[in-house]
Amino acid sequence: MRYLSPNSKLVLASHNAGKLREFSTLLAESGITVLSAGELDLPEPEETEDSFAGNAAIKALAAAKASGLPALADDSGFCVSALDGKPGVYSARWGGPSKDMTLAMERVHREMGDNPDHRAFFVAALCLAWPDGETQTVQGECHGTVVWPPRGTQGHGYDPMFVPEGETRTFAEMPESDKNAISHRGRALELFLKRFIEK
Ligand SMILES: O=c1nc[nH]c2c1ncn2[C@H]1C[C@H](O)[C@@H](COP(=O)(O)OP(=O)(O)OP(=O)(O)O)O1
Ligand SMILES: [Mg+2]
């Protein structure tokens, strides 16, 4: 286990604007200087693994090796019980080549049909990779239910069709701070800060 110093630079190996927004809020108080893969012009590697942790490692390692800095990647997805966990690691790909999330949500809705099981959860695997190839991973989940039609304009991805447990609002109807307090990404990042940052 290697620790990240709180005054070090960290590359966020993601090209997803919604994720990057949430990370910058969640890391704001840590003292860590965050650079994004986009601003460093890092390429987007192909996500060829069949697990969230595997794909997070591909993205984090590619960014760490290309930049010479520690890199943090997030591989996440939406797992619907009635669809045996799909779209899962294919969540982004269900939006087609243009990552159209309206299309992706419609496909989830269509494939669920009239199945009365509306349970679903989000998963985020966060991998911290070092330029020498070492990796360490944490994972967070957030469970809840699928709703249709989609509601709300905040957030990103599948947020408008997901109500977390104990809530009546979808993720897209909440201010970002409320989502971050209970989300898969918020939970994973809490573990990340607790376990991987030098005290
Ligand atoms: O909090 C979330 N709220 C709603 N939807 C979410 C969330 N978190 C992940 N998701 C969805 C978006 C995307 O369709 C897929 C992640 O795919 P994933 O490959 O990890 O990310 P991505 O391709 O959008 O960006 P990148 O790989 O550059 O980080 O799951
Ligand atoms: Mg991706």
From TrEMBL:
<dbReference type="GO" id="GO:0036220">
    <property type="term" value="F:ITP diphosphatase activity"/>
</dbReference>
<dbReference type="GO" id="GO:0000166">
    <property type="term" value="F:nucleotide binding"/>
</dbReference>
<dbReference type="GO" id="GO:0009117">
    <property type="term" value="P:nucleotide metabolic process"/>
</dbReference>
<comment type="subunit">
    <text>Homodimer.</text>
</comment>
<feature type="binding site">
    <location>
        <position position="179"/>
    </location>
    <ligand>
        <name>substrate</name>
    </ligand>
</feature>
<keyword id="KW-0460">Magnesium</keyword>
<dbReference type="InterPro" id="IPR020922">
    <property type="entry name" value="dITP/XTP_pyrophosphatase"/>
</dbReference>
<dbReference type="InterPro" id="IPR002637">
    <property type="entry name" value="RdgB/HAM1"/>
</dbReference>
<dbReference type="Pfam" id="PF01725">
    <property type="entry name" value="Ham1p_like"/>
</dbReference>
<dbReference type="GO" id="GO:0009146">
    <property type="term" value="P:purine nucleoside triphosphate catabolic process"/>
</dbReference>
<feature type="binding site">
    <location>
        <position position="76"/>
    </location>
    <ligand>
        <name>substrate</name>
    </ligand>
</feature>
<keyword id="KW-0479">Metal-binding</keyword>
<dbReference type="GO" id="GO:0005829">
    <property type="term" value="C:cytosol"/>
</dbReference>
<comment type="function">
    <text>Pyrophosphatase that catalyzes the hydrolysis of nucleoside triphosphates to their monophosphate derivatives, with a high preference for the non-canonical purine nucleotides XTP (xanthosine triphosphate), dITP (deoxyinosine triphosphate) and ITP. Seems to function as a house-cleaning enzyme that removes non-canonical purine nucleotides from the nucleotide pool, thus preventing their incorporation into DNA/RNA and avoiding chromosomal lesions.</text>
</comment>
<comment type="similarity">
    <text>Belongs to the HAM1 NTPase family.</text>
</comment>
<feature type="binding site">
    <location>
        <begin position="14"/>
        <end position="19"/>
    </location>
    <ligand>
        <name>substrate</name>
    </ligand>
</feature>
<dbReference type="GO" id="GO:0035870">
    <property type="term" value="F:dITP diphosphatase activity"/>
</dbReference>
<dbReference type="GO" id="GO:0046872">
    <property type="term" value="F:metal ion binding"/>
</dbReference>
<protein>
    <recommendedName>
        <fullName>dITP/XTP pyrophosphatase</fullName>
        <ecNumber>3.6.1.66</ecNumber>
    </recommendedName>
</protein>
<feature type="binding site">
    <location>
        <position position="46"/>
    </location>
    <ligand>
        <name>Mg(2+)</name>
    </ligand>
</feature>
<dbReference type="GO" id="GO:0017111">
    <property type="term" value="F:ribonucleoside triphosphate phosphatase activity"/>
</dbReference>
<keyword id="KW-0546">Nucleotide metabolism</keyword>
<dbReference type="InterPro" id="IPR029001">
    <property type="entry name" value="ITPase-like_fam"/>
</dbReference>
<feature type="binding site">
    <location>
        <position position="75"/>
    </location>
    <ligand>
        <name>Mg(2+)</name>
    </ligand>
</feature>
<keyword id="KW-0378">Hydrolase</keyword>
<keyword id="KW-0547">Nucleotide-binding</keyword>
<feature type="active site" description="Proton acceptor">
    <location>
        <position position="75"/>
    </location>
</feature>
<feature type="binding site">
    <location>
        <begin position="156"/>
        <end position="159"/>
    </location>
    <ligand>
        <name>substrate</name>
    </ligand>
</feature>
<dbReference type="GO" id="GO:0036222">
    <property type="term" value="F:XTP diphosphatase activity"/>
</dbReference>
<feature type="binding site">
    <location>
        <begin position="184"/>
        <end position="185"/>
    </location>
    <ligand>
        <name>substrate</name>
    </ligand>
</feature>
